[in-house]
Design brief:
2 copies of one chain form a homodimer. Chain A contains 12 helices and 12 strands. Chain A is of the alpha/beta class. Chain A binds a DNA duplex (30 and 30 nucleotides) through helix 2 and helix 4.
Chain lengths: 346, 346
DNA sequence: ATCGTTTAGCTAAACGATTCGCTGGCAAGG
DNA sequence: CCTTGCCAGCGAATCGTTTAGCTAAACGAT
């Protein structure tokens, strides 16, 4: 079928050991033999059998990447970055979508073990209770992505959610808002909790005690935010600003505002976690918290490669906390449609 | 290190053959032995070594997927669909981004061969000249995605670009437009050529002979369309409508319109190939051609699996031509800001 | 009792690489 | 001339599976 190293050896009239030495440059081989082997490789069209090599070497040169959904632009961007960094280091990437489903995730975790990925980069969907047996079963270095698992200290690359959200909310407060609503994500995820914490911190710092009705729960998907937003927007008095805890929920929120015929920012100011290309093209542009997606992916791979290189695994977990930036656009203005504050708005 | 089938065999007091038979259900094994083996598997935490299995079986249960850029929402959606379908059939997916770069692509094609993927799903970046030696070197079944390579009949899943574009342009003509501009993609790609063809067909069918200046070339990236659009919008007389040949270029086009302070659709109507979630949230909503991304990905996997199952490879190429739908939104109106036609606009 | 038949379960040979340790030829030193 | 040392290149074991082909036990028929 496909030529093997044996075929090359036969064609060059040498042993397989010599072909291997030439192909990998692992040993000195005399000039004439090198030429003959090189020639035989070209002639046969030989490509080393990666699977056989993996078996012998005990390394697959593969990284596993489990995200909740690659169509979420945040994960798309991170995945792209992970793949770039991985390929640069000679690793390929196997991608899975857990859909925030712990059962599906269990299947994929098992898949990664069977395939003997050299390391796993993973945005976990569950909390510590879901991963009772994880420590025992997983052998490959594992780097958490975007989220941490409370009670399981592990390597992780996350963003400073508390600070980022606090700043965004304080921006709204600075514009004069007092009734600021929050649409949260799934409550067992560290990101949701931290973003909620940032909201509370900001409000408390300005002696605001928001009604609990202003904090409504979504599930990080567009639809949930749409429903939540409809409830919020029908409240009396209506909140003057709403913050969505991620990009998809921002979409749902905007849709609800559009449906009710409310004007933004005159009737309601909007901001959200996660930036995305189209955010600046909305009218008005959407104020967002932009995560450093490239840096996040690159950092995750960096830690993964470091762990692969380490013989022992007795190291302290490394938690890289990345910094986001608040991108001010036109969707936030003074409450009640007052005169817009100075500053560039898109 | 990790338990092997040998460890399980020892623990259960049977031979490795029996463990294999139990694990795979490939042979009858007596009830008591099955129990002992099952128990030993649990006790040891054994997970079959996928690499060794691949070597023996000659199949990796892996599909290669090469797209130009996963951050392009079209490819994101298709990739998601490919992965769903692949996983359902027990295959994993290795993902690569060629960035429309034939050199990078060559590296990835080689990677796929080394890794012995069972089939390859591939959006090629080059034309036939770039793939002179492809036929000889590639062994795995290969399904082209989104684009075909003129002069290389191969399995492919594409969309009916000519018809889709013709319909969109005819929609504009129907609104009264005569000076309709087109921003094309990279000229060597079948998608660009077919979309251009659809534009020409539509114009010709209505006895319109568009100035060649109305057809400007982009490269499928946002920036190129932005520049192209600036040139178009400064023309005198200005085109009354612009069609962008893909989603990213639609973004660049909209940005340019925004920068020049033009109103859409009063000053200029806009439509584009590729739908995306945010398209309906723009003001006005963007009229787009929505490709059936889920169906495209699923079909590609379907053909791939079929080919994997076939012993011989003497089959005629299968070209699946999928149908898109034109999503009418508010970005297209009568030229010169006339009264909007009847019908729902978002 | 002997033979043949059936069959559960075992032994060992692949799969295609890498690599340890050996071989044998040659140069230099005695 | 013989020994020693050196080293290019080779043979064969190994990685963890699957599976062809074998062994031996059990049983029925003669």
């Amino acid at each position: 079928m496909m030529p093997t190293i044996k075929d090359v050896a036969r064609a060059a009239g040498v042993s397989v050991a010599t072909v291997s030495a030439v192909a990998n440059g692992t040993k000195y081989v005399s000039e004439p033999l090198v030429r003959r082997v090189r020639h035989a490789i070209d002639a046969t069209g030989y490509q080393p059998h990666g699977v056989a090599r993996s078996l012998k070497n005990g390394t697959t040169q593969t990284l596993g990447l489990i995200v909740t959904d690659i169509t979420n632009p945040f994960f798309t961007a991170v995945a792209r970055s992970v793949e770039d960094a991985a390929h640069l280091a000679g690793y390929a990437v196997v991608l899975c979508n857990s859909d925030e489903d712990v059962e599906k995730e269990r299947v994929y975790l098992q898949l990664m073990r069977r395939r003997r990925v050299d390391a796993l980069i993973w945005a976990p969907a569950g909390d510590v209770a879901s991963y009772k047996d994880f420590r025992a079963s997983q052998r490959a270095p594992t780097i958490l992505l975007d989220r941490q698992i409370a009670g399981m200290p592990m390597d992780a690359v996350v963003v400073d959610n508390v600070r980022a959200t606090r700043e965004a909310i304080e921006h709204l407060i600075g514009l004069g808002h007092r009734r600021i609503a929050l649409i949260t994500g799934l409550p067992h995820l560290s990101t949701s909790r931290e973003r909620l914490q940032g909201y509370r911190d900001a409000m408390a710092a300005h002696a605001l005690k928001p009604s609990t009705r202003l904090v409504v729960q979504g599930n990080f998907r567009s639809e949930s935010a749409h429903d939540a937003a409809l409830r919020l927007l029908h409240m009396d008095p209506r909140p003057t600003a709403v913050f969505a805890s991620n990009n998809l929920m921002a979409i749902g929120l905007l849709r609800a505002i559009r449906e009710l015929g409310l004007r933004c920012p005159e009737d309601i100011s909007v901001a959200a976690f996660d930036d995305f290309e189209e955010a600046s093209l909305f009218t008005p542009g959407l104020t967002t918290i932009a995560q450093p997606t490239i840096a996040i992916g690159a950092k995750a791979v960096e830690i993964a490669l470091k762990r692969i290189g380490e013989r022992d695994d007795g190291h302290l977990p490394e938690v890289a906390k990345m910094q986001s930036v608040l991108r001010l656009r036109g969707s936030c203005g003074p409450p009640g449609g007052g005169p817009p504050r100075a500053g560039k708005r898109i």
